[in-house]
Amino acid sequence: MSTSPARTLKGSRRLQRRRDRRSPSPQWQFLRGFLKNPVMVGSIIPSSRVLIEKMLAPVDWANTKLFVEYGPGVGTFTRPVLEKLGPDAKLVTIDTNPDFTRYLKDSIDDPRLVAVNGSAADVEKILVDHGLGSADYVLSGLPFSTLPAGVGEDIAEATANVIRPGGAFLVYQFSPKVRDFIAPHFAPIKRGFEWVNVPPAVLFWAYKGERQA
Length: 213
Ligand SMILES: C[S@@+](CC[C@H](N)C(=O)[O-])C[C@H]1O[C@@H](n2cnc3c(N)ncnc32)[C@H](O)[C@@H]1O
What we know:
With 213 residues, this protein is α/β, with parallel strands linked by helices. The protein has a single domain (5-207), classed as Rossmann fold (3-Layer(aba) Sandwich), CATH 3.40.50.150. The protein has 9 helices and 7 strands, in the order H-H-H-H-E-H-E-H-E-H-E-H-E-H-E-E. It has a 7-stranded mixed β-sheet with strand order 3-2-1-4-5-7-6, sandwiched between helices. The radius of gyration is 19 Å and the shape is globular.
């Protein structure tokens, strides 16, 4: 029996509706991650669009070949970064929560994205394992102030080792304490603040060596 195009279309719409019902919304997936591990996730609501645009505003996208994101969660920053990134560039995301990493792999179909389940403290090994060189930018949504003792220092040092001279570490946080971790490795460090976020966040743009305008 032959299948009419209308019937195929109806069938594919039904399939899509079933798929939509099965895959949870990013907000629900994020809340689930928070309830499972509140200390590691550190926030109950994903970042606001206003915070995302402010944090990413100084990025020189035309000269970005490798962008690394720590703690992507359900991809709140990941999707806008992919929208801005060039066609030949790569985005490596690193998250300790395997549910979030699987969610990113299932919901974002983009060959530029390399979603890794692991700790930001291992960024050097992760980039080597994937045959990648220095990063132009590293973005962090990690809850630095609630990380286990010593982890924040390790992450700041490893991050300084993978960013190329002139590149930058972009950090948004609810506590300004993160500056203590990054100050030994980066200069200059520019600071900002965003009220339109729950909770409001402090932003740091920490450059490796002199800023290349
Ligand atoms: C506040 S959430 C940020 C989520 C998202 N980027 C946003 O802006 O909405 C923090 C994320 O950091 C992840 N995380 C915590 N410790 C980590 C570590 N050492 N390495 C990588 N990811 C980590 C958590 O699993 C969580 O996804």
